[in-house]
Request: fold
Amino acid sequence: MVADVPEIWKSLEQTPIGASVRESLWLFPAVETLHLLGMAVLVAAVGAFDVRLLGLAMRGVRVSELARRLFPWAWAAFAVQVVTGFLLFSSEATRMVVNPAFRIKMVLIALAGVHAAAFRWIACRDMAEWEAESRTPIRAKIAGLISILLWVGVVAAGRWIGFI
Ligand code: HEM
Reply:
């Protein structure tokens, strides 16, 4: 436990959930395994969509069709990340809140959320038009590139947590 952190994180670590994840021989690795599997599904779903936006693959598939198929997977995987991430966090909250890699990761996840909302608002409002003309506007391609960079950052920061 890190001493000079707000009480709330010390209390979270002492909750039955935090203590059992921390003290169990198998719970932490099992939850972290689920966290890695959730990451794989989330990054695969978002990555495939972004690669299509960039026009690097699946050019014959409509962007709206790909969104319809992939976004449910991305949202389900994101839910798994939040639940498993919170369990991991609760077991070592005082160490995590002072860990620069963890902080960077949380900022990048928030930015990825804002970016997804902006994409919906800016690039999707006239999607029917640009799909009908079989072209992908540059703003959608830029959105795809930014999304890939943000999620690669989240994964790298997540991995980096264990090295600080
Ligand atoms: C949303 C997408 C997320 C992705 C792609 C992601 C990815 C990762 C990765 C790759 C690791 C490293 C695993 C390892 O070293 O074996 C990790 C660790 C971790 N993640 Fe996440 N994560 C996400 C969300 C979250 C959230 C929302 C939280 C907290 C609320 C969280 C908390 C943690 C913690 C505490 C660790 C460190 C575990 C340790 O001590 O090794 N993650 N994450």
